[in-house]
Amino acid sequence: MVSVIEEDGVSQILLPEDLVERILSYLPMDSLSRFRTVSTQWNSLIFSTPFLKLWTACTEAHKNTPWTLI
């Protein structure tokens, strides 16, 4: 479930961790290296063993997938 938090007039949308993990698993490692500075939570997630296994599996699965831009 998506949560919205408003603090000091600024709204933040919080996505479920499993959704964030799934989205990040499709990114190349150089992007992940930059995104780990977003928060300590993302840093911990990106360097966790389960995430690295998921990222490796996604990378291998998409290596031979042709991309079509419509």
Question: What is the compact description of this entry?
Answer:
Residues 9-58 form the F-box domain. The protein is α+β, with helices and mostly antiparallel strands and 70 residues long.
Describe this structure in words.
The chain has 70 residues and is an alpha+beta fold. It has a domain at 16-62. The protein is 53% helix and 14% strand. The protein has helices at residues 17-24, 29-35, 40-46, 49-63; strands spanning 3-7, 10-14. Strands 1-2 form a two-stranded antiparallel sheet. β1 and β2 (10-14) form a beta hairpin. The longest helix has 15 residues, at 49-63. The protein is elongated, with a radius of gyration of 15 Å.
Task: Please describe the topology of this protein.
Elements: E1 3-7, E2 10-14, H1 17-24, H2 29-35, H3 40-46, H4 49-63
Antiparallel strand pairs: 1-2
Q: Give the strand order of the largest sheet, numbering strands 1, 2, ... along the chain.
A: 1-2
List the uncertain runs. Answer: none
According to DSSP, the number of beta strands is 2
Shape: elongated
Please report the number of helical segments: 4
Radius of gyration: 15 Å
What is the rounded distance between the termini?
A: 30 Å
Structural class: alpha+beta
Proportion of β residues? 5-15%
Helix content: 40-55%
Main beta-sheet annotation: 2 strands, antiparallel
- Average pLDDT, rounded to a whole number, is 84
**What string gives the helices and strands in order?**
EEHHHH
Structural features:
two-stranded antiparallel ribbon; F-box domain-containing protein; SCF_F-box_component; F-box-like_dom_sf; 14% strand; 70 residues; 53% helix
